[in-house]
Design a protein that fits this description.
Blueprint lengths: L1 H15 L2 H19 L8 E7 L7 H8 L4 E5 L3 H9 L5 E5 L3 H8 L5 E4 L4 H21 L27 H22 L1 H8 L2 H5 L5 H30 L8 H23 L5 H12 L1 H5 L12 H6 L4 H14 L4 H25 L4 H6 L1
Parallel strand pairs: 1-2, 1-3
Antiparallel strand pairs: 3-4
Amino acid sequence: MIYLALIKKEFYQIIRDFSSILIAFVLPFIILILYRYAVNLDTVKITLGIKNDDNNPKISTLINSFDHSDYVKTKYFESKDEMYLEIANSKLKGGVIFPNDFTKNLMKNNSADVFVITDGSEANLANFVSSYTNSIVNLWLNQSSDFKNTLTPPLIQSDIRFWYNQDINSHYFILPGSLAVTMNLIGMLLTALVISREWERGTIEALFSTNITKLNFVVGKYIPYFVLGMGSFIFNIFLCIVVFKIPFRGNILILLMVGALYLFCCLGVGLVISSSFKEQFSSSQMALSFGLLPALMLSGLIYPISSMPKIFQYLTTILPPRYFITFIQSEFMAGTIPKIVLINSVFLTILGAILAIIVYNNINLRLEKCTKD
């Protein structure tokens, strides 16, 4: 009965304090919108300057090839200094100069030079400029009837197949992975304020005057926000699959089960924070610091963990988002892989249990001890 009374009390608190509903449902919707439409790791359309010094009419088809590319917007220049100025002013992302002996060297020596200038201040776009230019020139060489017979055909032809993400759409792995960041933030924010809020409002003294145990208190804080967090998680899954049309190849029941373990960890971190501070402001700041930055920077969502320095790779082993991102991306894109499900579930269970023990030890039901702390 004590458990039910405490759980009922927390549900009433959630209903009265509408901020919990906003955190659970409005915040993830906004985050998913940002990840869907603002974050894009796919190839992009770039503005490229073209200066052609070769008057041979045979090169005209190559110049036209840049206009026909879906990824390049061309602008032609008579003066290379003018083109350099627009690159310096960031009006162009790069430039291509064909020298006056380009066609002559190609016909005589089966090779020719193309001068490509890129804006190195934006490394990804600079790589796009280089790769787009090479692809357009090589495609033109393979298709041009004037030069096809003079070129040595490649000895090996690659037949490329893209598994798991045939469309090479970065949103197919960013949006599922972003759920780990979103649920981590939501789980911490939901519980980071519950105990400190009781201190600020003075209601915790009333709880201490009853005959509740530490286990009653901890379970009464976990279960209501776990239910609310799972509702938020299901809402996020619905948005990804139904609204944003992200392919899902796994098992929805396994997804919910592992998601429950992950939420259990996130709520644990929030309760550790809430049981350590008596002010909501301090608790919220700690939740934002631990809930957003580590999950975003060190979870493997944006930056591969294998490319991080060793010390940060070891640090990621205590971060729940690392394990959930690995699981949820494979669940969406490759389907249910038992080994991945088992390994990540074990780690999440261990982390969640450790956090629950810490929360239990942090709770003091005697007012004089809490005041001293």
